[in-house]
Amino acid sequence: MPNKGACKANECEREVIAKGYCRKHYRLWKAGEMPKTRYKTCTGENCRKKRFKGSLCEEHWTAAHGKSAAAEAAPAAASA
Ligand SMILES: [Zn+2]
Ligand SMILES: [Zn+2]
Question: pTM value?
Answer without folding.
Answer: 0.40
